[in-house]
Prior knowledge:
This protein is α/β, with parallel strands linked by helices. The protein folds into 2 domains: 2-75 and 100-180 and 273-355, FAD/NAD(P)-binding domain, CATH 3.50.50; 184-272 and 358-387, D-Amino Acid Oxidase, Chain A, domain 2 (2-Layer Sandwich), CATH 3.30.9.10. Helix content is 37%, strand content 26%. The chain is built from 12 helices and 23 strands. Strands 7-6-16-17-18-15-19 form a 7-stranded mixed β-sheet, with helices on both faces. The protein is globular. Bound molecules: adenosine-5-diphosphoribose and P-hydroxybenzoic acid. Adenosine-5-diphosphoribose is lined by residues 11-17, 34-37, 42, 47-48, 104, 126, 129, 161-163, 165-167, 289-291, 302-303, 306.
Amino acid sequence: MVRVRTQVAIIGAGPAGMLLSHLLSLEGIESVVLETRSEEYVASRIRAGILEQSTVDLLRDLGLADRLEREGEEHHGIHLQWPHERRHLDFAELIGRSVWLYGQTEVQKDLVAARHRDGQEIHYEVSGTTLHDVETDHPWVEYVDAAGRPCRLDADVIAGCDGSFGPSRATVPDGVRRRWERSYPFSWLGVLADVAPSTDELIYARHPDGFALHSMRSREVSRFYLQVPNETDLADWPEDRIWEALATRLGHDRDGWTLATGPITEKSVLPMRSFVMSPMRHGRLFLAGDAAHIVPPTGAKGLNLAVADVALLAPALAALLGKNDATLADAYSATAQRRVWRCTHFSWWMTTMLHTDGDPFNHQLQVSQLDWITSSRAGAAGLAENYAGLPIGF
Ligand code: APR
Ligand code: PHB
């Protein structure tokens, strides 16, 4: 058995785990990161593309935003659309904040590069990760490393940053944890295409055939999503059908708007789920990111919420381990959950407002809601504040 000791054992090398290790090292706290997948796999997962203002501000403060500044693009708002209407919301004008278009995949690469520069210990391709003694001051993690050697990582604290399928969440005993869940009767078909975007800012479109989203990754690459039934088989969606559905749902009968098409380089089906678990701390185990909550992608909150969690968690662990002060650690779960529920509500609300379910009453409610949001300053500001993101610490 290989035995290693560190202050914080971080399970998962996604954005939550990587940013946490970075923030901890700035506080003088050492950590070891364990990850089941390979470095290449983690760096190439396609994710959403919108960063909230507070995420960008934090990355800038940490000196991690050089590439984001060069390659990302500030967006002042979004377009909301339904048949015969396309209306723009200007977040910058409404609330003085904006969002950035920068692939979350790129954020992951920037974080990994920064951790490598600092010599962070990250073990990829581990298996059999099991958490032990989290209710004591000496928790430890058992795993098998990439070379097949059984290992034991002793720590003062374990950070469960292992996403929606990791083992950390289940380590909190059944009698202690509460969970809230909502599944949706539809999924998203996500498409990446080598074509210049046909819009300056994102278009969220409600259409009788189903929701569609026109997003982008760069001046040359567009990203699209279509509402499809659950269990959709990709084989039923050849390129022609995808472009036809996008042109219909995103189509706009004013100003001669057309959708430019190009080669599709990637397509996949994404399930939609809302999930929250509480508490986000049990003894010496702290959960952050998708390990504790999952939002449907409408509104692109997943990564932003993971960033907000670890921005709270890092100073809490620094105070606990560096000064033996448990005040912030004791408050972590309740503090984090306030924002978690705000984002859970916002993602559910955006999803519910924009997706079709064939119910004529719901159709009228959705159109009325879209009309109000885009014609009342108060309605628009509410959406803008949630979309561009509340300050960290909300
Ligand atoms: N041992 C070690 N690592 C594990 C284990 C395990 N048993 N199980 C899962 N992991 C790893 C996963 O392989 C993954 O790389 O934990 C990582 C969790 O990363 P994410 O799923 O990206 O979750 P998180 O870091 O919380 O990021 C949250 O970012 O891009 C967005 O949409 C994404 O909402 C998500 C958000
Ligand atoms: C994306 O660009 O992938 C994206 C953007 C906004 C969303 C969801 C996904 O709400």
